[in-house]
Amino acid sequence: MHPAAPASLRAISSMATRAVLAELAQAWRQQGGAALALQSVGGVDAARRVRDGEALDVVLLASDAIDRLVASGHAQPGSKVDWVRCATAVAVPAGAPLPDISSEAALRAAVLASPAIACSTGPSGTALLRLFARWGVADELEGRLVQARPGVPVAQLLARGEAALGFQQLSELLHAPGVSVAGALPAAVAIDTVFSGALVCGCQDAEAARQFLDFLASPASAPAQRRHGMQPL
Prior knowledge:
- By secondary structure, the chain is of the alpha/beta class.
- It is 36% helix and 24% strand.
- It is built from ten helices and ten strands.
- Strands 1, 2, 3, 4, 5, 6, 7, 8, 9 and 10 form a ten-stranded mixed sheet that branches.
- β1 (9-14), α1 and β2 form a beta-alpha-beta unit.
- The longest helix is centred in the N-terminal third of the chain and has 13 residues, at 18-30.
- The protein is elongated.
- Residues 1-6 have low confidence and may be disordered.
């Protein structure tokens, strides 16, 4: 008799990790891991679908979003695995001059000089709005902020000319067409996001799901993480 085929895992992630997860899922299968059906959507939508009880095994989101799913009883306690970190970066439409973002003061000046600034509805966008409030410029920027809808990349807004300056995780900007990346935020105001995974309550194959999360956090995943502008933990 042939051994039973590995179970198929149903996973959902935010868009920030879509590209690296696609590469890692292929590597996982090549080494004999369980088949994986992965959907990447806006992080807000992913969390809502988990809360709504969709049939899923693994959820992969920003660390604080995973914590909220555990606290609300929708992800399994003790199953959370932190697997990668990503910096927030600044980009402009391709061909536009790259702004000076070498210091907090330079970044602030670039923001104030921009006619339209794009950010996400995810963790980087939330943190960016807090930064603008701390700088005391939120009112001044009102009417110039363009917040991308969940699942819509900031790079798309830049490429379409709907914004002149964009902020999002480097992984989402790095290989996007129609944009140029100026770099990560300066250290004084860095916005880094740790991405984590957890087992959804009702997971059908906990062993395979845990093995997959362990693989994402293993040294074997580090080269792919770096290729996509992320840092291994």
